């Protein structure tokens, strides 16, 4: 199921606060190098990145641009990538989302610098 989510346009990435409250967020998603890996991208100072840093337990599912679920979600594990991995995710995002993706990634680099955004690796829960 993870691979199919990477083919979609948006992913509903649900992270969890310390008290267990779910926080769903729609993100762009790209497929990974295997059927068990997908990637997302975010600014480093967002709540979801802080929650992933604390605990990589997440749920993922298909959604629309507004975060309305379009199917079932599944448990997964998220981890934050290093600079090289994040560069690869930004490149994949730019390719998949075309001009809009390129403009968004380029604008992020101008506002935040190269290290102002981070790639997120998502794998199926074991």
TrEMBL record:
It comes from the Bacteria. One of its GO terms (molecular function) is coenzyme F420 binding. Gene3D superfamilies: Electron Transport, Fmn-binding Protein, Chain A (2.30.110.10). The keyword Transcription does not apply. Residues 59-78 are annotated as: Disordered. Keywords: Oxidoreductase. Signal peptide: none annotated. PANTHER family: HEME OXYGENASE HI_0854-RELATED, PYRIDOXAMINE 5'-PHOSPHATE OXIDASE FAMILY PROTEIN. This is Uncharacterized protein. It comes from Lentzea jiangxiensis.
């Amino acid at each position: 199921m993870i691979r199919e989510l990477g083919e979609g346009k948006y992913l509903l990435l649900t992270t969890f606060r310390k008290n267990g409250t779910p926080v769903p967020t729609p993100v762009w998603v790209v497929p990974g190098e295997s059927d068990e890996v997908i990637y997302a991208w975010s600014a480093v100072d967002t709540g979801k990145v802080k929650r992933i840093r604390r605990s990589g337990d997440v749920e993922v599912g298909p959604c629309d641009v507004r975060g309305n679920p379009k199917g079932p979600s599944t448990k997964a594990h998220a981890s934050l990538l290093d600079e090289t991995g994040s560069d690869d995710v930004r490149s994949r995002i730019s390719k998949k989302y075309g001009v809009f993706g390129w403009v968004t990634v380029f604008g992020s680099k101008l506002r935040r610098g190269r290290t102002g955004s981070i790639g997120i690796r998502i794998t199926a829960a074991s």
